[in-house]
Amino acid sequence: xxxxxxxxKAYGGSQAVAGIDLELRNGECFGLLGPNGAGKTTTLRLxxxxxxxxxxxIRVLEEPVPERAIEARRxxxxxxxxxxxxxxxxxxxxxxxxxxxxxLTDRAIRARIPELLEFAGLDSRGASRxxxxxxxxxxxxxxxxxxxxxxxxxxxxxxTTGLDPQARHLIWDRLKRLxxxxxxxxxxxxxxxxxxxxxDRLAIMDHGRIIAQGTPAQLVVxxxxxxVLELHGEGVSRWIAAHADSVCRxxxxxxxTTFCYxxxxxxxxxxxxxxxxxxxxxSVQDGGVLRYLHRPANLEDVFLKLTGHDLRD
Length: 313
Description:
Strand content: 25-35%
Number of strands: 16
Order of helices and strands: EEEHEEHEHHHEHEHEEHEHEEHEEEH
Shape: globular
Radius of gyration: 24 Å
Helix content: 25-40%
Largest sheet: 6 strands, mixed
Distance between the termini: 32 Å
Structural class: alpha/beta
């Protein structure tokens, strides 16, 4: 469905995409993760033929890109990061006008509009102006618009950014429906829970390179200890100093939280239980409160281990 081989793109001597290999299978949701500036959006623009690579080979739906990008894009749907709906048109008119770009007749487009509005949960909003829609409605309309040409492949660039939890869950449901129908999706997202829920496979990018690739479960098993303790409070530093060599050998502090990564959590939990028993109420150790959360490792732990904790702008 999509193939990139040794693709490179530089801007002003800086490698935005530094020789990546990527392949999407038919009927899967593939996630592309990475911090800001990792090269995700440039990768999407290269795949769509909007940017010409410096080297490498790109094929979209068996078409060489950028040479036959226009032909490939006839079978592709795109949801960009920012909604670009036309405020001068109604909801239905946005779908109608967009469908014309694909050479569809007005009759064919109008026949698809009710189905697309139902899919987007906008059945009763066909005559509404864009300004009257909530943020979640606009994102669902952008998704419906990307389906106007019944595409085989969808590019979704951070489709749920800025949405409340209810709107995000509705978008997730719609994306799962599309995959169940056999559509192939390339998804970029900053939400690790979103990637875990939706993606059959994913790749993590940083500094223009793919640094890890596999199923969410494979990445967790392959890159991180299975158990995590999150420690909070003024008593954490003293507890770590006392137990770092015995029960918590790999740990790091981010902000006010210390993360302890473990293969066997029982010794650490026993040490924490001793603190709670000795210093109730409130798990106070030498005047410092110590609170903890024990949980299984997840994709966010892998992401932060591989890309670091520094803020990217």
